[in-house]
């Protein structure tokens, strides 16, 4: 869809305050559909917005746009460099779907460009330090400070289950649903179950996909953190290590923080900004878990093509990554440290 109905345009007009003049569908987005919307304001000024709507399908562990809208507002209110969404637009494109608009942000989110482009060289020099501080702001949001997030699930009665156990239970469920069994993944999940570190960090807001490709970067530096569809309350180490998963280095394997920085200064900047000590044993565990998680995610993506009829060759190509992530997880297990 590259156009909005008259009714939808009217609802957009109400929240933006200007007339819709152009709608362009944007590429990407497995859990949502994104559109660039140009509006003409009463003053004659043209403003640009990104409209995010629920997609026909979603990925395991993802949240809908209504939940994402609440998370982004909480993050923006905590000082995180993320665009603050306008009012939620329930059922803009049909029943059981929601949408919202955020201001368009300049920059580039293409992973290979962020790690290699000459015009972003200056930004790369300090990007890891800026991201560490942003991550500390995200993790300052807790179930106590934002009990409304995720439907209040964090305050549900019953014994607390550690973030690692929650993730592993979800992984087992997804593995059971795969058409092609993966014994390496099964072994790695068992290793993770037997080697869980102490659960003594407390739950925080986790971005859930904090990696190169989900940061908007311009020549002057970071402009926005995007793509909150996997956010949840969990361990801070989920975000601290996801950025180092092999695939998110985009070929720059010697620079473990996103393909553009070393570990030590990133962890030091995060520790200073958050007041948390970074435990390298926990980093090791959660980085293994991250690689296992993406191996499973890549396998699930390919089955959207092979089993569920989504004719997108990119989904099929992503499936090849599963073996690479399995290898990386096994390498880390054998090494015993990051």
Q: Distance between termini?
A: 45 Å
Total DSSP E strands: 9
Helix proportion range: 40-55%
Quaternary: single chain
CATH topology of the largest domain: Aminoglycoside 3'-phosphotransferase, Chain: A, domain 2
Largest sheet: 5 strands, antiparallel
Instruction: Specify the number of helices.
Output: 11
Second CATH tier, the architecture of the largest domain: Alpha-Beta Complex
| Beta-strand content | 5-15%
Low-confidence stretches: none
User: Mean pLDDT across all residues, rounded?
Assistant: 93
How many domains in all? Answer: 2
What is the succession of H and E elements? HEEEHEEHHHHEEEEHHHHH
Summary tags:
single chain; 338 residues; alpha+beta; Phosphorylase Kinase, domain 1; Aminoglycoside 3'-phosphotransferase, Chain: A, domain 2; 2 domains; five-stranded antiparallel beta sheet; two-stranded antiparallel sheet; 11 helices; 9 strands; 14% strand; globular
């Amino acid at each position: 869809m590259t156009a909005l109905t008259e009714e939808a345009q009217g609802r957009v007009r109400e929240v933006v305050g200007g007339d819709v003049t152009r709608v362009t569908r944007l590429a990407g987005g497995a859990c949502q559909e994104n559109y660039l919307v140009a509006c003409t304001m009463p003053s004659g000024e043209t403003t640009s917005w990104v409209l995010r709507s629920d997609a026909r399908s979603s990925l395991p562990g993802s949240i809908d746009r209504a939940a994402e809208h609440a998370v982004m507002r909480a993050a923006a209110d905590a000082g995180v460099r993320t665009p603050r969404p306008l009012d939620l637009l329930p059922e803009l494109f049909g029943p059981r779907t929601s949408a919202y608009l955020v201001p368009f942000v300049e920059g580039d989110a293409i992973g290979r460009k962020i790690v290699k482009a000459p015009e972003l060289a200056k930004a790369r020099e300090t990007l890891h330090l800026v991201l560490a501080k942003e991550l500390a702001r995200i993790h300052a949001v807790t179930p106590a400070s934002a009990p409304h997030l995720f439907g209040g699930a964090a305050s549900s009665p019953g014994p607390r289950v550690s973030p690692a156990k929650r993730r592993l239970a979800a992984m087992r469920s997804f593995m059971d649903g795969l058409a092609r069994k993966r014994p390496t993944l099964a072994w790695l999940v068992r290793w993770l179950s037997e080697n869980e570190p102490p659960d003594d960090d407390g739950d925080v807001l986790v971005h859930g996909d904090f990696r190169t490709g989900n940061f908007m970067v311009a020549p002057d530096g970071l402009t926005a953190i995007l793509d909150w569809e996997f956010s949840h309350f969990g361990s801070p180490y989920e975000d601290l290590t996801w950025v180092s998963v092999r695939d998110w280095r985009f070929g720059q394997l010697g620079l473990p923080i996103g393909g553009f920085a070393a570990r030590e200064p990133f962890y030091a900047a995060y520790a200073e900004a958050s007041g948390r000590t970074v435990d390298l044993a926990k980093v090791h565990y959660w980085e293994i878990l991250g690689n296992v998680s993406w191996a499973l995610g890549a396998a699930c993506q390919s089955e959207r093509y092979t089993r569920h009829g989504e004719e997108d060759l990119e989904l099929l190509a992503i499936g090849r990554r599963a073996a690479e992530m399995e290898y990386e997880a096994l390498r880390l297990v054998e090494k015993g440290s990051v």
